[in-house]
Design a protein that fits this description.
Length: about 375
């Protein structure tokens, strides 16, 4: 524990500001194969993407080469831009102020980006859901397929691109009784599958989570993943988090709104779809969790609101989520703070978050 705290204290100086003068702290980040950190953020309602140099251990990212990927005033106020990378391809999606879902991609390492596609136009012809769609997640599987998950009212949709984002197939409805205010976690699973975790309506008013392994064509069968019994209709709710847990299954984290609201964690068996008992980490003042797993090392991070502002908190496990360290404060801010995001480049893990004074990147032990 002393080593863990010491590393946090020493690493807090690793920070950089990107998208100067942006009006929103909401951002998305991802490493590419070269070790460059890509950041996508909103400035004056417009989406901008830029990247750092290829990072060396202990080196702070210096962002440059900002490129606009959307028109001005195109991004919805509550939109959290999504970004994933693969080879020379950079994929970006966002919810638009017009009530659509925009998507753009680059095939030349981020030098140029395509004109936006409208992903929600790929909804099934028989779709009866109304209301504005919201993009929740992008995921890239090992076979090069790009998966996009989005929600509208009580429905969750999934659309797949087989040609590096040039086109998307007609969306499939994953669930029609979802609580779409809760967001979706989406992770690749093998060559041609993805696993999704979302907040679902059970037995009328109960709001818990469902999980499903999905391929491009087979029928979708979901399983109940959490049993907190919350009945809150507050919208929006923090999105869940999902990370691959080796051959046995998945790490899950979510905000539970039952008798003891807070951040919870559990392991999910990927064959039997049975989870371990949930472990509670934080109080009802916590926000959206983030998860990252590399072999047996697992990290869980979240933002906590307190009287002095907000803190970014993190806990770690060295045995695949069976036991955990006590959580520690990785950062504190009296101003605004975006949700923390755990990311990795190969075997190296990082905690990132955006604040009113700049972007922070914390290497993890």
């Amino acid at each position: 524990m002393r080593r863990w705290i010491l590393c946090l204290m020493l690493c807090l100086s690793v920070f950089a500001a990107f998208a100067e003068e942006k009006q929103s702290l909401v951002s998305g980040v991802a490493f590419d194969a070269q070790g460059r950190l890509w950041g996508v953020a909103v400035k004056q309602g417009q989406l901008w993407v830029e990247h750092s140099q290829a990072l060396q251990p202990g080196e702070a990212p210096l962002f440059s080469g900002a490129v606009a990927v959307s028109p001005k005033n195109d991004v919805a106020v509550d939109s959290r831009p999504q970004i994933v990378t693969g080879g020379q391809n950079i994929y970006i999606g966002w919810s638009q102020s017009s009530g659509n879902i925009g998507f753009s991609h680059s095939g030349d390492g981020g030098k140029t980006f395509s004109a936006p596609l409208l992903l929600d136009h790929m909804a099934p012809a028989h779709d009866t859901q109304h209301g504005e769609p919201h993009l929740d997640a992008l995921a890239l599987t090992a076979d090069g397929k790009l998966w996009a998950a989005w929600s509208r009212v009580q429905a969750i949709y999934l659309s797949v691109s087989n040609d590096h984002g040039e086109n998307f197939g007609v969306a499939r409805m994953v669930a029609d009784s979802a609580w779409a205010c809760g967001g979706i976690a989406l992770q690749p699973a093998g060559d041609n599958h993805a696993v999704a975790l979302w907040r679902q309506s059970f037995d009328g008013a109960v709001r818990d989570h469902a999980i499903a392994r999905i391929d491009a064509e087979s029928p979708i069968h979901s399983h109940r993943a959490t049993f907190g019994g919350g009945v809150s209709d507050i919208c929006p709710q923090p999105a869940p988090a999902l990370a691959k847990g080796g051959d046995w299954g998945w790490h899950m984290a979510w905000f539970g709104s039952g008798k003891k609201p807070g951040i919870f964690y559990a392991r999910m068996d990927g064959d039997a779809w049975v989870s371990s008992p949930a472990k509670r980490f934080a109080s009802k003042q916590a926000a959206q969790p983030s998860l990252l797993a590399i072999d047996e090392h697992v990290w869980l991070a979240w933002k906590q609101i307190d009287q002095g502002g907000a803190t970014v908190n993190i806990a770690a496990s060295d045995d695949g989520g069976r036991s955990w360290s006590d959580s520690v404060v990785a950062g504190r801010s009296e101003g605004e703070v975006d949700e923390p995001v755990l990311i990795n480049h190969g075997e190296k893990a990082y905690l990132s978050w955006n604040t009113s004074v700049g972007f922070r990147l914390l290497p993890l032990p």
